[in-house]
Design goal:
2 strands; mainly alpha; globular
Length: 157
């Protein structure tokens, strides 16, 4: 549920300052993840209430929520943010692909709004965009639709 970080830099470079501020508000958690130790402790000790709050707020169906792996997976995710975000944002690469790309865009994603994906077609020779009436957690909220899109895409190629 997120674009290539290099594409984010390109999109933000072209965006008006208000759009940049709006995206900074959407991405508040990225800054929080760079605080040493605290995010891992929060996930370790508060993964149940955080998972329940995320599931409620983002309308994750009952039974599709997170289990005990949330603490470990989230702590690992924090490490991925630390290893990649600031480095990529400071030193983006300009890259294109000739590989066909299907871009699945959740229209109501509060973290990665569709506006952040404007212009990504300049990085792919063959880009097919599908907008979904969904939020950030598409694999949990719309697993059947996502599987259908991936299957159809693979069969057409």
């Amino acid at each position: 549920s997120g674009p290539c970080l290099d594409h984010v830099v390109a999109a933000m470079a072209k965006a008006p300052w208000r759009a940049r501020l709006r995206q900074a508000r959407h991405s508040w958690y990225i800054y929080a993840f760079h605080v040493p130790v605290l995010p891992e402790l929060a996930w370790r000790w508060l993964h149940r209430p955080i998972g329940a709050a995320l599931a409620r707020r983002h309308r994750v169906p009952a039974g599709a929520g997170w289990g005990p792996e949330l603490a470990r997976d989230s702590a690992n995710g924090v490490q991925l943010y630390r290893a990649n975000m600031l480095r990529r944002l400071r030193n983006p690469r300009v890259a294109r692909t000739r590989v066909p790309v299907q871009l699945v865009v959740p229209r109501f994603d509060p973290f990665v709004p569709p506006s952040l994906l404007r212009g990504v077609d300049e990085f792919a020779d063959d880009l097919h965009r599908v907008d979904l009436e969904a939020g950030h957690w598409v694999p949990r909220t719309h697993p059947d639709r996502l599987a259908e899109l991936v299957t159809d895409w693979a069969l057409r190629r």
